[in-house]
Amino acid sequence: MELGGDPERVGVGGDSAGGHLAAISAIAMRDEKGPRLNCQYLIYPVTDSDFTRESMVDNARGRLLETEAMAWFWDHFCPDHARRAEWLASPIRIDDMTGLPPAVVALAAHDPLYSEGLAYARRLEDAGVPTIVKVATDLIHGYFSLEVVGTRCLEEIQTMNRLARPLLHASATGVIP
What we know:
Blueprint: E1 11-15, H1 17-31, E2 39-43, H2 54-58, H3 67-77, E3 103-110, H4 114-126, E4 131-140, H5 151-169
Parallel strand pairs: 1-2, 2-3, 3-4
């Protein structure tokens, strides 16, 4: 390949809304028999439109992402509240998670999205999807963009990348080179 990539080693990943896109892409690729993904790397992903989850209430204000801002995002992303129950909007609501690629889920304990991200990871595990969950107990939403602010964010990013790397580099047979 021109860029040196290997089509047998493909993953999806993203943070926040990008984590949402990665999660629904993994589901869609499974359902549409698209390319086999080695992993999904979900960094504090948006997976549900439920504003009553514990972290949406407990972490509502005073941090980089606030629950009020999430409501604004949802109102613009999916203004039809009835459609928010569909898996394309709230991937946690998909009926069947079996057969999805292995997941690495990075969460921040001081994030309104923490509870839904953890619930999504648990649903993956319950469906038999190999899932690594790492909670940064001292960080907030957005820490993947804050590595220049302090070494703690960079340390967590490096840890998460070390956890994801073997999944992405596994061959189509699951053998890690």
